[in-house]
Give the backbone structure.
Amino acid sequence: MRQEAREVRAAVGRDDRQRGRVGEGILKIADTRPVVAATAVPFVLRRPQDKATPGEPQVGRQVLAYKPDILRNVAEPEFRRVREERIGRGDKVHAIGIHGTRTIIELVLKIGHLEFDFPVVQAALSGYSNAAMRLLARRFGAPYALHEVVLDKSIAQSDKARRRLLGTLPHEDHPVGGQLMGAEPEEFGRAAALLVERGYDVIDINFGCPVKKVLGRHRGGYLLSDPPLAIEILRTVRAAVPPNVPVTVKMRRGLDESGESERNFFRIFDAAFEQGLAAVTLHPRTVRQRYMGPSDWAFLARVKRYAGPRTIIGSGDLFTAEAVKRMLEETGVDGVAVARGCIGNPWIFREARALLAGQALPDPPSVSEQGQVIREHLRLLVEHRGEDLAARLLRKVGIKYAELHPTPRLVRAAFIGATSYAKLLAVLDEWYDPARSWPPGRRKTDPGALIAAGARL
């Protein structure tokens, strides 16, 4: 399979098209399924709404099945572009070959000047997405991750506060985003500049947090109800950091279900790109919904259609690799941000990579592999935060890791009772002993026992 995939890449490369720009998107060979290079390379880039020339098959967003004789007379590999200026990020492009239609190219996720070969990233998670969690996510395939949200005033207070809240960025933890929350444009700007000084590659603005205490202080999701203030924050942050540092914003679809909330959303959305922001991450629930009920993927698809080539990253209800793939296919977003779905489950990135490459899902991690990863998570936490804090942080994440164990309830109870570093090590020795014969590990198929962001046990 690998040899055949290389042959396809080589054939496309001979026409100097292995990586080429189409509109504002980047094309990249992505499919590794067996394809015969001499007959599978010819294809046409076209969207469903673009009119085909006579005798030319139509290629659109869905994988279509054509009879082999369509390309019977094609003798040499060729690569043709059709109306490339009308193809933008989010359009699915397919290849027509002798064995039918194969999806062999995808659009790479682009945030400003940063380009990622995989459109699935780790979101900012309050109380969770520290350096240890981000590093594990990267090792399992996430190309980009965000630090947990921090308050702008706290960052601006003192260098001691910055060290306590941000720690030190490991050299392998790049590109990394720093997410800010606050209510004062000037504080936002100062904090953004300080994050850049500390090495953050992207600044992300939080207009989505639905926590009641945050809303009461006119932060997070509250700002979706105050477009003038929200837009001033966007403008100030963009102006405060160097032009080569992308600025992004996390939004929900409005404060509530009212028409006024939707109008406010689109006013802020448009202003974000007008002010030079590189991307919008959208969680398609309202602020009032918090995490109740399903997220509205139809709204997400509608926003992506409205956005055109502008980068939209989807979020919401991504608890399995299948859901990740389905959101990309159903909504057309440029990428997705996995949030609660990767707590205690960094394997979701490996599984999503497999599905998006047209491969079967890997087997769920064995108990032995789970134990190795949890111990590495603990080691990284100790390295960056010290033993006492590491034990408290991993105890909470351990409850989520337990859902993959063949005896999840017993392991969850053991993690809850691990109130010290020594007790935590004892849990790992007992329940993740590689010398024991364990049943197969479990695969996550639902949200599991959700833990509120920032919760303390």
Summary: The chain has three domains: 2-107, 111-356, 367-431. The chain is about 40% helix and 15% strand. The radius of gyration is 23 Å.
